[in-house]
Every structure is written in structure tokens, then in C-alpha cells.
Amino acid sequence: AKTVGRNCNVLFTPDMQQVLTRRRRLETRIWEALHAQEFILFFQPILSARTKQLEGFEALIRLPDGFGEMISPGEFIPIAEEIGAISRIGDWVIRSACRFAATWPEHLTVSVNLSAAQFGRNFEADQGLVDVVLQALKDSGLDPHRLELEITESLVMERTDVVLSELKALRDLGVSIAMDDFGTGYSNLSSLWQLPFTKLKIDQSFAKSWRENAATVHPILDTIASLSRSLGVNLTAEGVETQEEDDLFTGLGCDQLQGYLFGRPLPPADMAAFLISHRTP
Ligand code: C2E
Ligand code: CA
Ligand code: CA
Ligand code: CA
């Protein structure tokens, strides 16, 4: 194939073929895992910045590839979104996360990531997002105040009105809303502030760029911190990997910290031991 002219063989290079094959395999694997309930939730600890006590976990989905490896959500979530599988996966995540959290000590919360397609379903035969959450809370017995849903700026910007009304309904249930990956979107701040969220999560890229260029990044972080204070929302720093970053974000007045310094996402089998070692009096 390499003997064909310069621009003619691009579609069928061996590399391309491999990418397409992997992609097709992933699509099949996603549907298969959905029907066989083979997705797995890992849980990453979230700590109080001030006391360093455990306050909750973020649920992070994994897809076993069937050969002993985990496929990361960064790879398969965008595909699941494209092939229309994400809202069913997302419903499963909500139900499972609530069921897990109901077995934890009662002061601990669980945070669940949402995709745009999970909103705006209440006009179809499907159960809408609010009903799914309500049902998951009922079935698990989890106090709504222990559930937090994470959305992103881009998710909101895609469908502002639908998202807004469902977020309000979720807040009315007592569920918390976190604005995830804050600072990576280029949203219209004045419309962003009209959303009923209760927490800002500073994107982990800020920790990384602060490591590289503290003088430039510090004032930006300071601004985000004072914004969150004047809005009366909680502030969480993600991607905290070093003691210096802990000191930075704690010093800036963050309420909570999350990152490898405190714990990687834990497989379900490791949760019991972790909870015992982080028991609070
Ligand atoms: P996210 O919501 O921003 O989650 C944080 C990601 O950063 C996780 O990657 C986590 O493992 C990783 N992380 C945590 N602490 C550190 C750290 O100190 N350093 C570094 N370098 N990374 C850290 P993960 O688990 O691969 O998830 C990637 C993304 O996939 C998530 O980003 C989220 O957007 C999406 N995702 C995960 N689970 C779900 C889900 O159930 N539903 C949806 N819709 N998306 C999900
Ligand atoms: Ca998140
Ligand atoms: Ca994030
Ligand atoms: Ca992210």
C-alpha cells in the first residue's frame, strides 16, 4: 500500500486500521458490559482541607477489558456518549454509587459524574434523571444530602434550560451539585452563576501549572477562591499530588482536597480496609 501516491493511502494504513478495530471492539465491549453489568466503580477519597478527615468519595467508573485490564473512562466515556450508551451507563452509576454509599459511615458523601445526555429525558418513555435519582435514593435508603452530582461547564452550555430545570429539581430533593473541572471551559460566567451548584472543583490542570509556574497561576487561584467565597459555594481542589500543593490549596481557603497525595481511586475490594483505617471517633 505504501507505493500508492502521497495522499491516496491515508485511510488504510495499518495504524489507522488498528485504531478502527480497537474502536469497534470498544463499542461492542461497552454494550456487552452494560448488559452483563460488568462496569466497576472505583472510589477516590475526598478530605477536609483543614482537618484532613475523610469526608467522602468520588465514584469513578472503570470498564474491565475482559483480559484483566481496566479501560479508563477517559477513553470509553466519549465513545459511550457517541453510541448512545451513556445515559444507561450513567443510570447504573447513580444506582450503584447510592447503594455503596449507604453501607458507609453516615457522615460520608458520594459524588457521581454526569454526562449531558443524562439530562432532558423526561419527555420520552424513559425515566428522567430526577426520577432515576429519586428511585436510587429510595431503593438504597441513602440520605439525599449524602449524594453529590458533578457537572461540567461544557455540559451546561450544551443545553442550559433543560439542565437548569432538572438541577433545580435535584436541589429540591436535597442533592448537592458540584461544578467539576472548573476553569477549563470558557463559559459565560454570569450565566454560570445562575446555576444552583453548591461546590466548585478546581480542575487538576491548575495544580500542574502551578507546579510549573507558581507566579502566574497563584493570582488566578486566589481569584477563584474569593469568587467561591462571595458566591457562598464550597471549593475543592483536585489533582493534589504533593505536600506543597496541599499547603497551597489549604492556604487559599479550599474546603476539600482530592488527589493522589491522599489516595488513588480504590477498587471496591479495598474500600472496607480503607474505611477502617480512616475511622473517625
Ligand atoms: P474527573 O471527574 O475530573 O475525575 C478526576 C480524574 O483525575 C480521575 O481520572 C482520577 O483518577 C484522576 N485523578 C485523581 N487524583 C489525581 C491526581 O492527584 N493526579 C492526577 N494526575 N490525576 C488524578 P479517571 O478515573 O481516569 O476519570 C477520568 C474522567 O472520566 C473523569 O474526570 C470524568 O470526567 C470521567 N468519568 C469517570 N467516571 C465517570 C462516570 O461515572 N460518568 C461519567 N459521565 N464520566 C465519568
Ligand atoms: Ca469529577
Ligand atoms: Ca474534575
Ligand atoms: Ca476531568
Automatic annotation (TrEMBL):
It comes from the Bacteria. Keywords: Membrane, Transmembrane, Transmembrane helix. The keyword Glycoprotein does not apply. This is EAL domain-containing protein. The chain holds residues 403 to 683 of 704 of the full protein. The lineage of its organism: Bacteria, Pseudomonadati, Pseudomonadota, Alphaproteobacteria, Hyphomicrobiales. Coiled coil: none annotated. Residues 23-279 form the EAL domain. The keyword Membrane applies.
